[in-house]
Amino acid sequence: MFKTLSKTIKYLLFALIALVVAIYISACSSFGQLPDLSNKKIAEQFERSPQWDGSYFKNKLAQEPVDRWKAARAFFLASNPNTEPDPVLEVESTDVSIYQNAPESGFRVTWLGHSILLLEIDGKRILIDPVWSERASPFSFMGAKRFYPSPLAFEDLPSIDAVLISHDHYDHLDMETVKRLKEQDLNWYVPLGVGAHLRFWGVDEEKIYEMDWWQQQQLGDVTISSIPSRHSSGRTLSGSEHKKTLWSGWAVNGPEHSVVYSGDTSMHPDFAEIGERLGPFDLSIIEIGAYNPLWRDNHLGPEQAFIAHQLLQANTMLPVHWAGFNLSRHAWTAPIERLLVAAESSDKNSNIIIPKPGQAFEPSSPPQNQRWWPSIPWNGVDKEPVWSTKVDELLEGYR
């Protein structure tokens, strides 16, 4: 009897190990590939970067360390029934016929949920952080799942000139989407090191432009600038793999229009310098969600996002990084509710556009905001403050 039981346990243990190995192997391609620092060209490129310390990239303003155990408990054990839409959020499909004609003003934006954007600016079409997979995860069966299918089917995408990637986290860099887009003749603008993932997935080396903060490239007569952010990178749970690639935001300046995208970031002083050097902007696109006091130096939160909008010298603000995936424990509508409260209580510019996912608009003639999201309980800044560290002086006069 004991021999039989022992054999059964051995078989079960073997099956479990085989399952774990199979799952890991299935995700290996999605993990991507780290930069090859034995390559002289890549090594020299890294060494020229003020952000590279020889082993990993660092933020200009150091981050408060994240307690991984507390963060895991907060995410998996904290109870909040409102982190995802219930019932499932229904969104309207994007009217693809609009892409048959250029925008009247020369500048149009389609928000596809989370941080997925299609910009049409001064004759160029640019995708930002495109994710068409069902999950922001290396696995097809687990991980953060979309709140709704993409309102713009991949097959309905108009021709694209370029893709901007802010960093290599799964909700911003999606292998399956990259593999589908690589068939098109377009340019890829990415932070230092992220090109290794793209090359691993088959993107043409000559189409990849890896950039450090403040570096610029031309896309015709449109200037694309990599701008500082305060965040991190990495596609596995291994701490040794984190921050081996850079993270950034982007500014796009055309002959007639300009837009700035924060990428994922916490508060930092360079927002003001970005506004001075590259602004003023017609539109700021700023992340407002996935915040938590435990990782307050990784995401802005709504209140600081509104402050960043002011510092960037932008006329209008489009809030993103919400209403797409469940990446924290706050109510899924809390980011936009808190942003509206911050704007209403401020005497600063509060021209905010809140389109429905999939809705295209021209910033010069934006649609009237409608509350398309439900009214559910959410915590304000008094109960769940998210103020980044080391920026008290910067926030003085805004907070």
TrEMBL record:
<dbReference type="GO" id="GO:0005737">
    <property type="term" value="C:cytoplasm"/>
</dbReference>
<protein>
    <submittedName>
        <fullName>L-ascorbate metabolism protein UlaG (Beta-lactamase superfamily)</fullName>
    </submittedName>
</protein>
<dbReference type="InterPro" id="IPR001279">
    <property type="entry name" value="Metallo-B-lactamas"/>
</dbReference>
<dbReference type="InterPro" id="IPR036866">
    <property type="entry name" value="RibonucZ/Hydroxyglut_hydro"/>
</dbReference>
<dbReference type="Pfam" id="PF12706">
    <property type="entry name" value="Lactamase_B_2"/>
</dbReference>
<feature type="domain" description="Metallo-beta-lactamase">
    <location>
        <begin position="125"/>
        <end position="322"/>
    </location>
</feature>
